[in-house]
Amino acid sequence: MKLTKKQKAVLVGTVLGDAFLQKAGEKNARLRLEHGEKQKEYLFWKSKVFGRLFQGKPTYIKRKHPKSGKTYGYWRHQSSATPEFGKWRVIFYPHGEKKIPTNLREILVEPLTLAVWYMDDGHFYPRDRNSFLYLGRVSKEEAKNAQDTIARNFNIHARVYDKKTKGFVLYFSVSETKKLHKLIASHMLHEFDYKLLPEMRK
User: Fold this and answer.
1) pTM to 2 decimals?
2) What is the DSSP secondary-structure string of 136-185?
3) Could you give the angle at the alpha carbon of 84 between the alpha carbons of 55 and 42, nearest 5°?
């Protein structure tokens, strides 16, 4: 099954963010989505985008944190295993661990993709009117690739910061935050309005 333009855009954005492509056999993979209680509707929205690739209903899971002992809950939904997701797994997991792909400039081309990535891992600081996109445990080279891609494809210029224990992040100044939010605002779900400048909210 070939993915639609919208499905590809959401897939790339969410795998760059919180999603996981799980290997299933030699050539297949499945897309696993996991979000906290407050992001239930967001997970449901993602599942709906992929239509019949996601069967059954999302499940609510409770886990006890091994260190703190606190119980927390989250929602999970995963797709069927397909060769199409298998192809994308090769791109994002070239050696078994998730990486920012070397061909990012070719696949991060839609504002929707950037919006999904920002909904997953972006943060807006109202007091300073600036934004961050947390990249996680990636190399500096991968972070620079993300910085360069966003600059070249969207004319939005971020700086790479090393947050040490939190990994690398892209920092968007006040002026670049305005450009970023203007680009992605129409693709953002209402529950993520708090991640946008007030004047960009629906």
Assistant:
1) 0.94
2) ES--HHHHHHHHHHHHHHH----EEEE-GGG-EEEEE-HHHHHHHHHHHG
3) 45
How does residue 119 score in pLDDT terms, banded at 50, 70 and 90?
very high
Alpha carbons 33 and 17: distance in angstroms, whole number: 10
Residues 6+ apart with CB under 8 A from 115: 13, 184, 187, 188
Give residue 116's pLDDT band: very low, low, confident or very high (50, 70, 90): very high
Long-range contacts of 159-167 (CB under 8 A, 24+ apart): 161/132, 163/134, 166/134, 167/134, 167/135, 167/136, 167/137, 167/138
46 in Cβ contact with 27 (< 8 Å): no
Query: 145, 100 in Cβ contact below 8 A?
Result: yes
What tokens does 65 get? 């944190």
**Which helix (H) or strand (E) covers residue 12, if one does?**
helix 5-16
